[in-house]
Amino acid sequence: MAARDSRSSRDRHFQRRLKAAIAGQHLPTEVELLRGMAFFKADMAVDIREFAERLSRRLKHQPRFEIAPLAAALDDLAVDQSEEAVRCVDSALEAASAFNDTAAYAARLRVRFYLASFGNSDAAAVIAGETASIAFTDVRDNRDFDLVPRALAWAVVANNLGNMRRAGFTSWSRGRVSRDLRSYAEEFEAVLELPEREAKRAEDKNSSDAEKTVARENAQQTDLSKGAVVVFRAIGNDSTSEGKRVGKEFEKLLKVPLPLPPVPDLTRVRKRLADEFPYAVAVIDDLLKRLVGRKHVHFRPTVLVGKPGCGKTRLVRRLCEELALRFELVSCGGLSDSAIGGTPRRWSSGEPSIAVLAVRRHHTAGPVVVLDEIEKVGTSRYNGAVHDVLVGLFEQETSSRWFDPYVQSACDLSHISWLMTANTTATVSPVLLDRCRVIMFPEPGPDQLDVLAPRILERLYVDAGHDARWAAALEHYELAALGEHWRGGSIRKLQQLLEALVEARERHGPRQ
User: Are strands 368-372 and 417-422 parallel, antiparallel or unpaired?
Assistant: First the structure.
């Protein structure tokens, strides 16, 4: 009881200081940042400037030749809060041997935190270790596990940043690290809270309402253990003529456990995809590693961002095919209102939400909805906004009880995977991006021509209704000609060149 009171007191103290930090009345300490406190005025640039100005003023009271470069670097940082300026301060801190006390250690840690937030994998690894050390002390001394999910999340973020750096990515969208960190922390927290929820469930057994809740949750868990989930438990207003009609549409799905897609042999899937998309192996690994250890396939909302024609949409489609997933491919160019979330049955144009349609069409609780070119979604709110609907469908809490205006009842859509493509994120709602993993998709280089051209050629023959064996191997002079006109980049352009080559072959007849 005493430990619980102490923890509650610490939480209240943290919340008070958090409000003060957001209001610009308190510069968070390094440990508070590790514990998840917001930056000064909730802005990293403002936090960096405040830190630089304060430390610079302090050092100038101790004029020493050895720390003059550090003071100069801090003055520059107070003007320019870029990653490069932070790196300069980091180097100056390491070189300033005369500045070697507790404050120096705190300054180094804070600078590493800034670098980690910019996407530096080495700094993120340091922050993961520091956070884990504090979490260990909390657990050992107070049985307080609150910081453990954040420490684990930092470790995953550091690993991901390292993989992306080795794959050639050197820049990240603003706020990506914080979004990924928050998302991973929430996932770890949900797993760690399971024993706590079980204990609370046991305490509520004497309540009849609690017993009903437990029975319902246990039934759902039983379905999950069998690889199936009941998506539709009722049809609203089923006594009306419209309700009866909708009930007839969904009679084969109502109260019926629908299967979840099992995870296949990921090694085989990876090999086939890597052979077809050798330039995007890092993206393939990033997607597939989320399925390791799972029984059923499910992806967090994910956006693949890359230049037009680089193969994003095809990779998503091939990923679904190799994983044996049922999917719906939706072009976002024509989406401009909230109809994606369903329209009421009372209208002649009434229809279920796109997620419910996918479940009904494919008879599975875990289909994939692919939103192609999400940046082209209309932003007008005249008839509701697509982004507002998607935000609700992406959240576990709301998607598991999604009220569909056509079904007029809560549906469990939490097992649907949302995969998106985008040429840019500049026009995508920040609120939507905040709930997604954003993965940068690379362009193939000219060194990939020998691998990509034969595969595209085979596909052209298959699409034309011919046996793939009709696609005679490309001659050296044909590859050389292709290389002169394709220097990497858009696969769409390479396909157009190969289509012209096929036409030329057919015009001149078979080769002798």
Answer: parallel
Look at the pTM and tell me if it is higher than 0.85.
Answer: no
Q: How far is CA 193 from CA 144, 185, 419, 464, in A?
A: 12, 12, 28, 54
- Strand pairing partners for 274? none
Question: Which of 302, 308, 412 is CA-nearest to residue 356?
Answer: 412
pLDDT in tens, 224-249: 556 889 999 999 888 888 889 999 99
Q: CA 250 to CA 268: how far, in whole Å? A: 36
Nearest to 91 by CA among 64, 69, 75: 69
For residue 242, how far is the Cα from the chain centroid? 39
Tokens of 56: 């610079």
Low-confidence ranges of the chain (pLDDT < 50): 214-215, 218, 221-222, 512
Report d(CA 54, CA 59) in Å as an integer.
9
User: Which residue ranges form the domains of the chain, and what is each CATH number?
Assistant: 2-192 (no CATH), 205-258 (no CATH), 266-440 (3.40.50.300), 446-508 (no CATH)
Instruction: Report the alpha-carbon distance of residue 120 to residue 137 in Å, rounded.
Output: 26
Parallel/antiparallel/unpaired status of strands 327-331 and 409-411: unpaired
SS (H, E, C) 389-417: HHHHHHCHHHHCCEEECCCCEEECCCCCE
Share of the chain above pLDDT 70, in %: 82
The residue type of 438 is V
Nearest to 416 by CA among 339, 338, 362: 362
Distance CA 473, CA 459 (A): 13
